[in-house]
Amino acid sequence: MTTISQLLDEWVKDPAKKQQIQSIHVIEPKEAKTVPFPQDLDDSLIAALHAKGISELYTHQASAYMHARAGESFTAITPTASGKSLCYHLPVLQSIIEDPKSRAIYIFPTKALAQDQKADVNKLIEATGKQINSFTYDGDTEPGIRRKVRTNGNIILTNPDMLHSGILPHHTKWVSMFENLKYIIIDEMHTYKGVFGSHVAHVIRRLKRICAFYGSHPVIICTSATIQNPKELADSLTHEDHVVLTNNGAPSGTKYFMFYNPPVVHPTYNVRRSAVLEVRDLAQELYTKRLQTIIFAKSRVRVEMLVTYLKALVSKKLNDRSIQGYRGGYLPSERREIEKGLRDGDIRTVVSTNALELGVDIGQLQVCIMTGYPGNIASAWQQAGRAGRRQEESLVVYVAQSTALDQYVVDHPEYLLGQSPEEVRIFPENMLILMDHLKCASFELPFEKLEDYAEYHVTPLLELLKEERVLLETADKWHWMAESFPASNISLRSASQDNVIIIDQSVPTKTRVIGEMDLFSAMTLLHEEAIYLHQGTQFQVELLDWDEKKAFVTEVDVDYFTDANIAVEMKVLSKDKHRTEKNVEMHYGDIIVLAHPTLFKKIKFDTHDNIGSGTIDLPPLELHTSATWITFSKPEEGNLHLFSDAMVGAAYALHSFIPLFLDCDRKDVHVVPQMKSILDQQPTFFIYDSYPGGIGLSERMLDRFEELVEETHAQVASCPCLDGCPACIGAQEANVGLKEEVLLLLTNLVRD
Amino acid sequence: MSYEKKLLAMKGLIKKQPEQVKEPIKEVNRPDFVKWSSSDYDLVHTDQGVYYKISTLLPHDFKHGGTQFSELSSLVAKAKRDFKGHPLTPEESSRLFFYDTETTGLKGVGVHIFLNGVLFETATGFQLDQFILASPQHELAFLKALPFQDRDTIITYNGKSFDLPQLEVRWTMNRKLLPSFPQVFQIDLLHGSKRLWRGQQERYKLQDMEREQLNFHREDDMPGHLAPIVYMDAVRSGKTENLDRILEHNKWDLYSLVALYIHSLRHLVDAPETRSSQTELNLAKWLRDLKLLPNSRELYEKVTERYEKQDIPHAYYYLSLLQKREGEFASSLDLMETASELLVGIEKLDALIHCAKLAEHQMKDLGQAKNYVQQAKTQLLSLTAILTREKLAFYLAELKNRDERLDRKIISRESASFDK
Questions:
Q1: Residues 6+ apart with CB under 8 A from B300
Q2: Cys-Cys crosslink for A75: which of A234, A353, B29, B140, Cβ 3.0 to 4.6 Å?
């Protein structure tokens, strides 16, 4: 077996690898900081901890216990594998030991995670020898045992969706739980972001409202990966004042962070060798050197691909299980077995989606490989945290893909390693989301006259619901007076209300759904005759049923792609904020985006010849949302006939780098350039939220626009391509010089 | 303006806290419920609020469809005497209430019960009380008007899954102002109907029972699924024409509930001539499942006497099992053999296996047992297409084990006699 330092020595001397290793950073080891068990901790719990080999608590666990016992809501920021779950298990179990009627709700972002954690808490309970019931309650819970869970469960492990549609609208069946609820645990808080997080914020508000009705005031405990704004997020998610605990006392060994960029294989377009192949080669080497390795890949398909490649290593051995995949869709029993194999060391290489990022106990491995940037810093650190046995050296290898963001990260290791992760934004004020949950809350308990809903004065909204004949106003209350069950019409997870479903009908007897797409994108990518690419396979759209929101596609093999033109019109409804900076004027406010697809072109691969076109017959789509827009005067120097193309290129680049600042997906915001805005005939960039009513992302870009431009400029300038590539301003025609124009334009935006 | 636009236009109005102190509650002179136009409803005032009520008195000999209500008390008395512990039999000294609700929806705590219909026997006949929710604000008075107490028996149609849970939801919503929910007994006639008339009806809605069993036809009935919108309209507009028709619908539901209870009890205790062989078998099986074995056996015996055996093979099958319990092995095997000849499919297979068991363990006739196993194997082979893989494996293993054990026993018996 090789040690990590030996391996690194070998690699930096290897002429082939040396080229690709862009940098290596060392994170110094940390000693454990521990304190004795709290005075009041029950003997049975102390015995259980001793049985696990724990004789003292880490500092963060001890302060968590202290705050919980003092009745203060808190958020614990802890890296992977730092004994996070004890931060809440201890106070919860202590409260149940003191009063067996006590209850706690654990909320996990997914059903699978709740089921995984049940095993964890049950092990601890068993070791105490106490009679404490913990159950999962979700869509998989057998109807036969639901009553038992409701009446006897001390600890209920569930997910926000079940709380929203299965528990809160039926709260009278849970009287004894709500009356005795001492703790609400929100694990993996950083996963509650954007639209989903905003929905969950309301589910928590509804939960608290019902607790108040039954006379309980539970302490709320959140745990989170490192993000920039934990307190803001926790406060906003739970509408409660949180203390943030960052005194992580868990030890760690020396960690090497390697930034690895695959070789360029197509210099003109700046295309690099596939990260998957590169990872395969590295992993094979690690396997033969007997270093226990976890590989993160972004999709299930890639996981399966890598597993297949790697299993070739052991194809001659019978029943070898030393290389395994791990992803959603595996059975719980399979997952348990893989987790155990990892802890025991029987499994030497595991390939996983981000499923293993979250708090599943698999012990610590020696090497972690990331196939591409996972999208945000919090995830990257969660993944990196999987490597690093106590006091031992570990290695994290980041293998970049060709995309803009991946290349940025490989060039700027300080972005990952520096202590300034992204902000996680939620926006419970979104009127549509707020209204959805106001309906649910009214259904659950009638609002009193002048009662506030969490931090909102909602009387005008209740008036509106009365007009809509959903509520009935009486002398003292607003009563639900409609036949519907509001929670069933509101899904916490879908970004927009109706997506277009993509149905593959290549084999008429085996039609299957292969994906879905939001309406805005569907207009340009799923119109009839469009060539739709799905995981590398070409499909032609045969029929787009706009009313039913279904696109029927058939697999084809053609040598062209389609490119749709869309006329986008912006109407400004209100200006809420304003800022003038050097050459630009910035506004934030409400806008209406009116998108109207016009025609599409068929463009041949390689030559990019236009080989045909057609019209798109779809109604215009209206999106009422919030936006930040930046207006500036047309520069005097530069190639003016390229100016509009430069605007498009700049918008492309700006759009790519927004996720550096906000933890969001690229598709959550749009950047649209306008040559002459209808406002004042000046060139304008609109940055708007993709979700009706806005989700708070574009608002933040008002404050951070200069940073965005600076970063974008630096990255475009340092991109090794000649004329523009997908990693910077999008693919461009050669020898036009657009890249310089874009750089000039960006410079103009921020400099005198 | 669309709903969405209205909503987004309100963005400025929803101010987040902290804000200036709340305005004091404005005194609005809003009536706390809408006075209804109909004069048939009595407005009842209580300390907790108001509710509307309509009482209807019925004579003892009231007839609904083909059913005379006066039969009720004697049938109940007989059931208490002969069928103690049966789900249709009320507990001793428990008051009987027939109960049916109308609600504003199907599930969840936002659903209101707006009509409680309660029918019970009085000294002079029967009385139907319909309580109507005047406004959700007056729910407490409306709930308190219900006569239910501990140990009462509440007879419903699907009330175990719907009406009573709904009532408990409303109770819990007002729990601070109400005593705890009374401990009542329940008789749910939906369950009873499904047992008694299994295999004879496709659907078991109350109106299917009226048509199939009670000889009653509603005319001009307002369908129950309209009840929510009718009430919601009435409570907003004060107009009650349609609500009257919902009250009528509820009244028919309750009359049919009484009639169906009488009809079901008659089958249980009286063995009417009109009872079909299928119903008799259903009832006998039901009694058996309830462990009311003497009642069950008596009925099976009656059935085997009364009907041609080819019509009632199941009776032979179950009667055989009951006799086996009582140690009457020879006649039990006789009956099971008859059943195995008459039954088909998997049931025939099961009967043959029972025969083999009886022959082997009780009659100690190994040759005959072997014969049954052989027949069972043949039968199993004809079923390979129907059985699931698990079932098939189960039967194969079962027969194989039995066969091998029989062979061993035969050999050891032969060698034992040879040794002699």
A1: B284, B315, B318, B319, B322
A2: A234
**For strand B42-46 and strand B49-59, is the pairing parallel, antiparallel, or unpaired?**
antiparallel
A527 CA: distance to closest CA in chain B (Å): 26
Question: Which contiguous run of DSSP H or E holds residue A568?
Answer: strand A560-581
Chain B residues in contact with A167 by the CB 8 A cut-off are none
Contact between chains at A469 and B19 (C-beta distance less than 8 A): no
CB pairs under 8 A between A and B: 119
Please give, rounded to a whole number of angstroms, the shortest distance from the CA of B188 to a CA of chain A. 20
Residues B26-45: pLDDT tens digits? 444 445 666 776 667 899 99
Instruction: Give residue-wise pLDDT tens across range A700-733.
Output: 899 889 999 998 998 888 887 777 777 788 767 7
Tokens of B375: 């027949």
Task: Please judge whether B14 and A443 are an interchain contact, meaning their C-beta atoms are less than 8 angstroms apart.
Answer: no
Query: pLDDT by residue (tens digit) across A461-501?
Result: 999 999 999 999 998 899 999 999 999 888 887 545 567 88
Return the residue of A nearest to B168 by Cα: A172
Mutual angle of helices A404-411 and A643-657, in 10-degree steps: 70
- To the nearest whole Å, the CA of B172 is away from the closest chain A CA by 6
Burial B189-220 (b: 16+ CB within 10 A, else e): bbbbbebbbbeeeeebebbebbeebbebeeee
**What architecture is the B42-270 domain classified under in CATH?**
2-Layer Sandwich (3.30)
> Is A409:A383 a contact under the CB 8 Å cutoff?
no
Q: Spell out the domain ranges in chain B.
A: 42-270, 277-415
Are B42-270 and B277-415 the same fold in CATH? no
Longest CA span, chain A: 83
CATH class, range B277-415: mainly alpha
Residue B10 forms contact with A (CB below 8 Å):
yes
Taking the C-alpha atoms of residue A543 and residue A528, their distance in angstroms, rounded to an integer, is: 6
- The ipTM estimated for the assembled molecules is 0.86
Of B22, B109, B172, the CB nearest to A169: B109
CA distance A123 to chain B (A): 35
Q: For B166, which residue in chain A has the nearest alpha carbon?
A: A172
- Return the bridge partners of A157, or none: A106, A136
Does A482 contact B232 at a Cβ distance shorter than 8 Å? yes
Cβ <8 Å between B236 and A480:
no
